[in-house]
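Subject: sequence -> structure tokens, single chain

Hey, anyone have a minute? Need the predicted structure for the following. Not urgent.
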Amino acid sequence: MTKQEELRSLTDRDLIGRIKTVDDLDAWEELMSRHVDKAFQVAYGILGQRNDAEEVAQDAFLRIYRALPKFRGESEFTTWMYRIVVNQARNKYRWNKRRGAHVNVSINQEFENQNVGKLTMDLPDRGKTPDDTLMQLEFEGEIAQQIKKLPPVNREALLLRNVKNLSYEQIAELLDVKVGTIKSRIARAREELRRRLR
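Reply:
Had a minute. Here:
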């Protein structure tokens, strides 16, 4: 078994142990490659801009590497990582807003990187007519426009729930708020979307 195969078979906790004890850069590369796409997706969901999301994901992993010696493992690595990514994305969002940059959230844009998942709604099935397909695409575009108008805290919670499929408990831990607050934010976001899309 090669070292790369061995590293791929290890859990995140095992990789972190190697990084902390012997500063194994190959273990760090494996850990980062497992999760960088997820970090990008979360950042993209908040920021809606590819370049900004890439910058946030890279910066977040630099911070993670520096802070890893202090990671105690009380939560899952991914929860800790998402918290850092969300905080970095919020900072970038505020920075952009102060400078007048527009934030777009795309539900149906395909990423160029083939290893990155898509932030998409279900695609129309192949049996639909061109008119049905056009109406579906227009509806998705309208949803995307309305999502970007939601308050940032509600939009974040909705995207983490619906795009990343995180549980309410995971989102609450990630955003450092109570579960009830997360449920409330998601309910408000969904109700606001329903009202806007009538």
